[in-house]
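Action item from last week, closing it out:
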Amino acid sequence: MATAIAEQELDQLALPPDQQNPFEVLEAVINLERISVTEFLARTGVASQTYYNWRNGVSKPRRTILAGVAATLGVPVELFALSRLDALRWLLSHNSAQYECFV
């Protein structure tokens, strides 16, 4: 039940597809998890060139890749459709024990 409610909240906050920047949210999650880029790449299996292409705006992550990344990092894939600020707010309110030092 809580997961369904959380997904509804995320759907209501989602940006239009042309305004979405999943990398900004991914970067925020990586920072909150306090993991290095190297550790992120090892945990998710994303190639370093792919990661840097996302960071530099050369390409955007595909939804299928984001689903795997989300599962590995323990966040809902819908989070990547939000603005960075909304994603941070959502993460802090739903994982407050995990990220309590950031509140």
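Closing note: Residues 2-102 form a domain with the 434 Repressor (Amino-terminal Domain) fold (CATH 1.10.260).
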